[in-house]
Design a protein that fits this description.
CATH topology of the largest domain in chain A: Metallo-beta-lactamase, Chain A
Distance between the termini of chain A: 8 Å
Number of strands of chain A: 18
Strand content of chain A: 25-35%
CATH class of the largest domain in chain A: Alpha Beta
CATH architecture of the largest domain in chain A: 4-Layer Sandwich
Largest sheet of chain A: 7 strands, mixed
Helix content of chain A: 10-25%
Oligomer: homodimer
């Protein structure tokens, strides 16, 4: 399973039953939390997200609607005797805030907490299953998006071909890694005759808060799904620009230019009580758009 | 109107739909917020508490379930263009935490925010209508309770008596303040012949987190209503003691010894999914006990 569950889709202040930004990326039995607005731990209870499966949290920036729930979640992990180590990635300042709040309460956590400071585009997690990278976005304060990408899978061996070309079984693993085979007579058996492309490597990008900025495209290009903020409808393009946010059509244009397969939109301004217009406007530019409705799980 | 509305009655972590501590004392058209656990601003929306009427916030101590919602509320006040000045009272450390969080977000508030540090028993607010004081409680870290008391009202003039004793009208105001009247012949007209006791001055005390400690009694004595924590049922008295919390019967005993009229109990441990036992146990010692259920408004 590689999926994202939306816990909060509103901007700035809670309104109309909508909560501040938080989403959970589930991959290979692990829950990765992206942003953690106030009340995220309660939304996790509401939507039955297993908190014990969280080992990594990524905070895009230090506007409160993206991180005010973090200290509460860490604190609850402590009270609930979470054992697993917890890695939190966020911009400079986050570490100091969390450490200060733990200090004044004289809190000793029962697990190791690692607060990592992001300072630019970087690889944050890199294991045999997944790579998680961050990239800067264009917002009023330092802000980062996050890209989750499955590790490139080995090529798929075609057994009958391997037998036909008399490849020794001891070489099969190297075939899966893409190597050609050289026979004793020096002739070469091309890898592409013996194997097929492995499964597609899925990719999801969370584009955080950002004004319209095509410089993020190389980071998110060809993703299976991206989440891009649409704080405003298109008629408030000037307001979006001045507040370092995006409109529906701007988000959709980024999705189109980045050649992604699907676009989720969220971070709706509290001035809007209904969301239909957001979907309609974005679909004019990029048809495969979905509203990031709270409680919804989207497969990647 | 002098009343308290419960927004959160749970301890430590949110559970069973219960939220961390927060309550609103409404007096003379003003909302005073006492403690502000995570999600308090959402609870205010749920229970239609007018945020614009809040000018004072009192934080008992720096365990997260009592203040993690404060920065979000202050931030929302800013985004909602709150104009009125805001006074926040809390123990040392709170000012630094809030100022740091405002700084990293480069937030400029549209109102004056005053962060007052409490350092011991003191009068925090004293105007012509109300006095609000704090007193230390006995908890794992520095912690304060708060007492809200109506100002002593003038005595009530009995007009026919004032006429009978030929008191000049210019002296009526001094009669209301309790003075005797001295006639020209030197004889004294006793105030009690001319006036009656003014209306009763109502008093409410929030006793914060505390282990059983009779030293709080002088601060809360004869209150019309107190809120006292009951984190545990009575069979967990040892656990309550070691964690600086109280049980049902301990809270009820404090209420009884302090000769208060009504007891509200809350701050229930997340280990309890139902609350009936709390009420039954406390009532054995102090019959006029009520569960501090969320969303309930209690007249003082």
């Amino acid at each position: 399973m590689f999926a994202v569950t939306i816990l909060g889709n509103n901007s700035a202040v809670p309104a109309f039953g909508r909560h501040p930004t938080a989403q959970v990326v589930t991959f290979n039995g692990v829950n990765y939390l992206v942003d953690c607005g106030e009340g995220t731990q309660i939304q996790m209870i509401n939507y039955k997200i297993r908190r014990s499966k969280i080992s990594h949290i990524f905070i895009s920036h230090l506007h409160g609607d993206h991180y005010f729930g973090l200290i509460g979640l860490i604190n609850s992990f402590g009270l609930l005797s979470h054992q697993q180590e917890l890695h939190v990635f966020g911009p400079a300042g986050l570490k100091e805030i969390i450490e200060l709040q733990l200090k004044v309460a004289e809190t000793t956590l029962p697990f190791n907490l690692y607060l990592h400071t992001i300072t630019g585009a970087a690889t944050l997690v890199d294991n045999e299953k997944i790579t998680i990278k961050c990239f800067p976005t264009n917002h009023r304060i330092e802000c980062y998006g996050f890209v989750f990408e499955e590790k490139k899978m080995p090529r798929k061996l075609i057994p009958e071909k391997a037998i036909e070309f008399e490849i020794p079984q001891s070489f099969y693993e190297r075939l899966r890694l893409g190597e050609d085979y050289t026979k004793k007579d020096g002739s070469i058996v091309k890898n592409e005759w013996l194997t097929e492309e492995g499964p597609h490597c899925r990719k999801y990008a969370f584009c955080a808060d950002t004004k319209y900025d095509e410089s993020i495209i190389p980071h998110i290009a060809n993703a299976d799904m991206i989440y891009h903020e649409t704080t405003y409808l298109d008629n408030l393009k000037d307001r979006a620009e001045s507040r370092f946010h995006s409109t529906t059509k701007q988000a959709a244009l980024i999705a189109k230019k980045a050649k992604v397969k699907k676009l989720l939109i969220g971070h709706f301004s509290s001035k809007y009580d209904t969301l239909e217009e957001f979907e309609l406007e974005a679909k004019e530019v990029f048809p495969n758009t979905r509203l990031a409705l709270e409680g919804t799980c989207f497969n990647i």
